[in-house]
Amino acid sequence: MKTFVFCAGFLVLCLVLCSGVSLAYSMDNYLLVSDTGEIRDSIPEERPKMKIVKTEQEWKRQLTPEQFRICRKKGTERAFTGTYWNSKEKGIYQCVACGQDLFSSETKFESGTGWPSFWAPVSSENVETETDNTLFMHRIEVRCSRCGSHLGHVFDDGPQPTGQRYCINSVSLKLIKK
Fold it and tell me: The pTM is what?
């Protein structure tokens, strides 16, 4: 059995070295991450989701200055200026930092706020929330559950069926068109 484990580990190492990806290891779970930060995970349903942890310098190398300001420093883009605020294209909106699916164009709606708005994420497991009391306001911050990137805020003034409005920065999203 030990020989098999050693051979399997050696095979994974060889594949990693030959394919230009790095290997992140956590207990029994392996996750392949390319130099661009793309996750190469062939069977994600078979294990718990892993968090992506990078240094500030690694995020700065991967993201544009505006993406870094918003995603990592909790900034906000100006209303009515983002790429997706009035987009009608169909597809899945992913996290710009890690590629996790976040929102579907099927739940996108026109909120009049100048930011892309959605009434629900694709999965509640793909986003996490935290109380945000900055700027003398009480809000609920929305983050990517995989990499912790700041996405925007969620409010209780959205349409049915959820009554929620996920007000998200375009800069933190990447649309994968259908």
Answer: 0.73
Which member of 71, 98, 144, 167 is catalytic? 167
Residues 33-87 have pLDDT tens digits of: 444 444 444 444 444 578 999 999 999 999 999 999 999 999 999 999 999 999 9
Strands (E), 124-172: 127-132, 139-144, 150-155, 165-168
Q: Of all helices (H) and strands (E), which one includes residue 25?
A: strand 21-26
Mind listing the domains of the chain with CATH numbers? 2-50 (no CATH), 65-177 (2.170.150.20)
Mark whether 71 is an active-site residue. Answer: no
Q: How far apart are CA 172 and CA 15, in angstroms?
A: 31
Query: DSSP per residue over 84-112, as a string?
Result: TTT----EEEEETTT--EEEEGGGEE--S
